Every structure is written in C-alpha cells, then in structure tokens.
Amino acid sequence: MKKHLGTVIGTAIVGALVFTVWDKLVEQYGLGAGWFAALWIIGLGWFVNHAIGVTYNTEEAVWIDMALGIGVTGIIKGILLGKSFAAAVPTLLWVVFGGALGGLFAFWVEESLGENYELE
Amino acid sequence: MNWSEIITTVFGSLMFPFLIIIAWDRAADKIGTFAGIAMAGFIVGTSWLANHGVGLIVQGPNAVWIDMALAGAAGLMVHSMLQGSSFKKALPTIISACVGGVIAGIVAAAV
Question: Is A93 in the B-facing interface, judged by CB distances under 8 Å?
Fold first, then answer.
C-alpha cells in the first residue's frame, strides 16, 4: 500500500502546484511566465514522480503519468467552483481522442525509427 | 464545437503526448537528468503556450477546465498499451493518481 501512497501524494503535489501557483504567475506576469512555470513546476514534478519514481509504475503495467492526476485536478477544481461539466464534455472527448492519436502516431514513428535506435 | 475548434483541439492534444513519448525519456537517458528537467520547459511549456496560451484546445463556455495533461495521460496510456503493457496491472496506480488529483482539486478550489 505504501507504494500507492507515493502516487497519491506525488500527483497531489504537482496537481496543486499547477492549479494554484501557475495560474497566479500567468495572471501576474503574462504568458511568458507560463512557460517558466512549466519548467520548474513540471520539472520538479517529473523529477519526483518519474525520475525518482514516487508515482508507482512498473515495466509490465501501462504507464500512468502524473499528467492524469493533473488533469483530474483541473476537473475537480472546476466542479467544486460550480463550472459546468456538461459544457466540458466535447472538449474532453476530443482531447482524449487527440491524445490517443498522439500516442498511436508516436508508436508508429518509433517503429520506423527501429528498436535499436540510439541517440548519437 | 465547430470544425475549426475540433481541428485545433485534436492537433494540440495530439502534439503534446507525441513530443513527450518521442523526446523526453530519450533526452533524460542520453543527456542526463537535468535534460529531463529541462524537457519540462521545452515540451510542457511550449505545448502549454500553444494549447492554453494561444488556445488550440478550445474550452467550453463556463466549463470545467480540460487540461492538456489529459491528452498527455491518454497518449502515454495508449502508447504503453500498444507496447503490450497490462492495463489491469495499472489500475491501482490509475486510482491513486485520480485520488491525488481529487485532493489537489479540493485544495485548488479552496484557495
């Protein structure tokens, strides 16, 4: 169970940072701050959740990215603030569809790169 | 959503996981962990500017926010499944990540 505690906390931390600090930075300093927010919030989140591995993923299981926790954070925040979930459904469907296509295309491109592809 | 909104939404949603899958781990493995951290800026930051700053991903009127992160998660899962990984074995992590998201959502809404 302790390994799953890591996932809960790791995703909660990065999700909370994204949906509190990031918005504030953009509101205060504009779009450029949004790029930098990605660097240090997601950079830190990636390092903790995936490089160190606080989010529990194994070779044999489908990869679950902290991005899932971040996406859920956005949805829950919106619901609690009284925004419409129904109005978000078309966006949600197309976003998941587009995302799935991105994964599929990446898989195909990797196949053509070859299994033994090594970055020089 | 009209057709031009669907096209930009799908494109932006496709672009983000594609870049993550192709570039991120290769940079981290070959160049090192700092490259991995820098990738957050290049991949996520740049995608964020396109998807949310410019607005490739079109949000609904007064709608709950649909983050490009969901596109990322979906793409990574599909890619992983195509590589033959088990969805069933990932269920505990999926649930845990959702629980983490709910906690963070509560905190974010309370601010």
Answer: no
